[in-house]
Amino acid sequence: MAPIPVILLGLGSIGLTIGKAVADERQLEAIAGVDIDPKVLGRRLAEVCDADLPEIVVVDSLAATHAPAGAVVLQATGSRLEAIKDQLVAAITCGYHVVSTCEELVWPWDDHPALAGEINRLAREHEVTVLGVGVNPGFVMDTLPVLLSRAAGDLEAVHVKRIVDLTTRRLPLQRKMGVGMEPARVREQLDHEQIGHVGLSNSVQMLAAGLGWHMDVIDVDSRPIVARESTETGLGAIPPGKVIGIRQRATGMARGLPRLILELVMEAQAEGGTHDEILIDGAQSLRLRLDGLQGDTATAILMVNQALRICDFPPGLQTMLSVPLLPEKANVER
Fold it and tell me: Which end of the chain is more exposed for a tag (fewer CB within 10 A), N or C?
C-alpha cells in the first residue's frame, strides 16, 4: 500500500519533532514542508528537521506545495484557534485532512461554537477531517480520564494532576512558563493570558462532555512558583525570589460542588519529576499514575498515529472523543 502523503505545516520546535516522527513511520511520506520563517524557507526539509526525509525545500504556503487532494496536513503553528483559522480554511478547501496541535482546537465547541461550526461545515463539504490532538489538552487530562471512568461506575468527582519538570523541556517552554522572571510580571502576564499553559479549561470542557456532565462554572487559577533557593534551569541558575514555573488549577463546579479538578504544575526541578495522576472517585474509586510522559515527544507520536487513521474517520471537525479507537477499515484478524 502506498504511504500516506503528509505536509508539515509549521517547523518550530514541535514541528521539528513531528518531522522526526514522520521520518520514522514508513506508512507516511512527507511531501512538503511549510513555514514563513526566513531561517528555514528554501532549505531542504531533511536538513531543517535533521531527519531522513525527502529532498524537498520548505515553502511559505500550502498553495505552493501543489500537494494532491487527500493529503494530511500536520499543523503545528499556534495555540489559539482564531490565529490558525485561515490556515485551516486553506487546507480544507484544498481537500486536505488536518491533524493539529492547536490547543483550542482539541475542544472548541464551548469557547468558539460559531467558529467550530464553520470549520465543521466546511470540512464536511470538502469531505475531509479536522482533528486537534496533543498530550495536554487532548490525552492525559481529558481523553484518558474519560476512558478510565468507564470502569468506575457511578462517579462523584475526577481529579487529574500533571507535574512537568521544566528542566527536561525545551527552552521556549521554560520562557513561556516565566522562568527567571519577576513574580509580579508573571502575574500580570497570566492575567492577560500572555504566558502559561493554553487549554486547561478546554480539558475540563472535554472531560465533562465525555462524562455526560454539565459544569455550571469553570474557574481557572494561575500563579507563579517562586524559587526558595538557587535553582538550575536551561536558562541558567535562577536565584531565590524569581519565578521557576507556573501552577494552574481548573475547577469545574456543578450544583455547588467541585466535580472536576485539573492541576498543572510546570516547574524547574519539580519534586518527583514529570508524572501524571488520575484519581476517580465513584462506586469504584480508581487511581492511575504515569511516569515520564514527555509532552513534545508524545504529542508528535499522537500526531503521527492519527495521521495514519484520519482518512478513515468521519468527515468534519472531530475530537479525540468522537473518533473511533478502531477505524472501520482497519485490517484486524478476527
Answer: C
Three-state SS at 22: helix
Asked if residue 223 has pLDDT above 50, the reply is yes
Q: Cα 268 vs. chain centroid, distance in angstroms?
A: 21
Q: Is the pLDDT of residue 37 over 70?
A: yes
CATH of domain 4-134+297-318: 3.40.50.720
- Residue 328: band (very low, low, confident or very high) from pLDDT cuts 50, 70, 90: low
Q: What is the 3-state secondary structure (H, E, C) of 212-276?
A: CCCCCEEEEEEEEEECCCCEEECCEEECCCCEEEEEEEEEEEECCEEEEEEEEEEECCCCCCCEE
Cα separation, 264 vs 159, in Å, equals 11
d(CA 103, CA 55): 31
- Intervals of CATH 3.30.360 along the chain: 143-292
Q: Which pLDDT score, from 0 to 100, does residue 187 have?
A: 95
C-alpha cell at 31: 511531501
Q: What is the DSSP string of 172-227?
A: HHHHHTTTTS-HHHHHHHHHTTSSS-S-HHHHHHHHHHHHT---SEEEEEEEEEEP
Q: Are 170 and 12 in contact (CB under 8 A)?
A: no
Calculate the dihedral angle through the C-alpha atoms of 241, 243, 244, 248, rounding to the nearest 10 degrees. 130
- The reported pTM is 0.91
Could you please report the per-residue DSSP string of 67-133?
Answer: PPTT-EEEE-S-S-HHHHHHHHHHHHHTT-EEEE--HHHHS-TTT-HHHHHHHHHHHHHTT-EEEE-
